[in-house]
Amino acid sequence: MTEKTENKMDKIVSLCKRRGFIFQGSEIYGGLSGTWDYGPYGLALKNNAKDSWWKRFVTDREDMYGMDAAILMNQNVWKATGHVGGFSDPLAECKKCKKRFRTDQIPDKKKCPDCGGEMGEERQFNMLFKTNVGALEDENSISYLRPETAQGMFVNYKNIIDAFHPKLPFGMAQVGKAFRNEIAPRDFTFRSREFEQMEIEYLVDSKNWEESFEHFRKEISLWIKEVGIDDDGVSEHEISDEDRAFYSKRTIDFEFDFPFGKSELYGLAYRTDYDLTKHSDASGVNLIYLNEETKEKITPHCIEPSFGLDRTVLAILSSAYKEDELGGEKRVYLKFVPKMAPVKVAVFPLLKNKPELVEKAREIYKIIKKEFGAVEFDDNGNIGKRYRRQDEIGTPFCVTVDFDTLEKGEGVTVRDRDSGKQTRVSENGLVAYLKEKIQ
Ligand code: GAP
């Protein structure tokens, strides 16, 4: 990691805390490693990304079925998929400093990367969070916090087929929390123990898997552009036969140049009929697909585009983070695409102590808020400070009510976040002007 990029990550983490995007989980108790709490702006950004994903991949399509399955699932689900037996990472402990590491992520398995001490023996560490359901703690009451949203969809395959009779190809989509007891959570929210995924299990006739795989490959790239992730920083990494999960016949990782280095953002995998076959065998429930026209019975194969929501937020933040000089002053701003911005418009009276300006600004604020929802009114400090604050949270437009608004009826000024340029816009034309810019 270079000093420059390390620096950028620190600056993003600090901005996220200072401006109410993301905080360390359980901070006042010294934190809980690998957990993060989203504050108002972080939550708004995350929801904007989630809503755009849902629109693009579910509501704008005719072949997708939305789901919201329970996080706690019957333990047999995870036995059938192999998670109980094998959802592990290799772990070893330093004999000297007692720190634990994932041995596939350190340069020398025998030497501690922190203190140089001798590393202990490597063992497999299962990442499932185990719990018990109900009042009895025995073998039968064991359950796990799901480590991926995917299985909530596979186990509902039959329900979707019975309720909707979809034609192949069709998909099930879900957004929700996943939990992994990561050995070494790292790089802010990048590797967390509790995180959100947005996943699709797209079921196809095995003859046509390549067509759907290519379709989602393009869709992922379009989505990356849509949310303002810098696509120059995105690259596709074809996972080799040796490195691929054993059930996958093809996997592409979409990697992003995060400030700490190039790392996985999303995955696209051809999971074959592995999951449906395993669940059918283990549950004894027939999970075949009957083609009503040809009467052919098949087990559908699955193409799985899998998106981490927290990594999406981190990639958006890292793409948007900018420093420049405006009017001779250094500033930091977040260059979000308008639809991702937590606040779309801020409205100010030029001066706080002039009631007539405040009243007019409030009147305009109410109209704009009704239209765009995420709108702030701010009369704290001087106008320069307010601009800087809005720049730091990435608000694309600031509307100021000044004396010309009141005395000459000359409308308001609209300041553009990126250029700092101010344009006079008539009061009547303001909503339409902002609508065009934002949408
Ligand atoms: N259902 C397939 C699956 O879960 P994965 O590659 O393990 O595949 C999919 O995870 C995506 O979930 C990753 O590309 C990443 O965006 C996100 N993800 C995985 N582990 C994560 C973690 N510990 N913290 C944050 N995001 C994570």
Describe the structure.
By secondary structure, this protein is α+β, with helices and mostly antiparallel strands. It has 2 domains: 241 residues, Bira Bifunctional Protein, Domain 2 (BirA Bifunctional Protein, domain 2); 96 residues, Anticodon-binding domain (Rossmann fold), CATH 3.40.50. The chain has 13 helices and 24 strands. The protein has a 7-stranded mixed beta sheet with strand order 3-10-11-17-14-13-12. A 5-stranded mixed beta sheet has the order 21-20-22-23-24, with helices on both faces. α3 packs across α8. The longest helix has 20 residues. It starts with a helix and ends with a helix. The site of glycyl-adenosine-5'-phosphate (GAP) has 18 residues, from β11, β14, β17 and α9. Glycyl-adenosine-5'-phosphate (GAP) binds next to β11, β14, β17 and α9. Its main location: cytoplasm. It catalyses: tRNA(Gly) + glycine + ATP = glycyl-tRNA(Gly) + AMP + diphosphate. Keywords: Aminoacyl-tRNA synthetase, ATP-binding, Cytoplasm, Ligase, Nucleotide-binding, Protein biosynthesis.
